[in-house]
Amino acid sequence: MRKLSFIVNPAAGGGREARRGHPLLREIRAQAAGAEVLVMGQPGDARHWAQGRKDDRGRVVVAVGGDGTVSEIGGALAGGEAALGVLPSGSGNDFARMLDTPRDVAAAVAFFNTATAGLCDLGEVRVEHASGERSRHRFLVSIGVGYPGVVAATASHAGLLRGFPSYLAAALRGLVTYRSQAMTVTGDSGRVSGKLFLVVAGKGRWCGGGFQLLPQARLDDGWLHLCRADAMPIWRILQILTSAVKGSHGRHPEVALERSTQLTITCAEGAMVHNDGEWIASHAVRIDLGLLPRSLLVLGAPGGGLP
């Protein structure tokens, strides 16, 4: 049996777990007797606990939460010998869509004890804010600039809606007020400048709880995948938004799907940015993205073969 550490975010999914009396937490304790179960109580808990276990060979640190929780724990485990497991309980759960992890707790516990792990890439982003402040983050799924940043901020206050419906409602609401911004995107294939509706870059195929914005993305391919959309009228955005659910939006002339080993995005007026669904900037003037290739052990990752 492996050593299992469950790090639980009770606020994931808008706090529905806490409102229901923590049934998921009770089931984890019942099905994983003897496992370490840690419940987050303040910012930084997940990162601190994961960092303390990253070099423990044979340990699986299970993130119980949404993409933000998974990202925080995965970023802390990078370069270590412990593996990341995911038991999704958030609103979007986009990273979990790319894994083979069962959703049933009993089946997931058995999976964490027996499944093989694959080495996945981890993204790094450096943000320069209009205030002059600088921040650094790691991501597993994607970074969204412009309209996706607005959607992520809106979805975090979605009230009773959860999952894809909360992101869809936020996406439609954001169309009313959002205006495309002048940006410059620089990558391996060159530089593009102009009014852009959105820029999304990352490793995850899905974003926003069900939009397949990066349909060619793989967790271990050594590339940052990019979706760039030009400014366009609302009626046209709605047409393309429908195809984005299926991942066929790249056929539209306003959309470019590319890949690069590194990216720089600048926006003089300052853009909203999300990191794995978590809002991180309201006025970012420069965003630099890079990769830490095959730096994170993940249970259930495609191509997994490590014990």
From TrEMBL:
Residues 1-129 form the DAGKc domain. GO terms for cellular component: plasma membrane. GO terms for molecular function: ATP binding; ATP-dependent diacylglycerol kinase activity. Keywords: ATP-binding, Kinase, Nucleotide-binding, Transferase. SUPFAM superfamilies: NAD kinase/diacylglycerol kinase-like. PANTHER family: LIPID KINASE YEGS (PTHR12358:SF106), SPHINGOSINE KINASE (PTHR12358). This is Lipid kinase, YegS/Rv2252/BmrU family. It comes from Aquisalimonas asiatica.
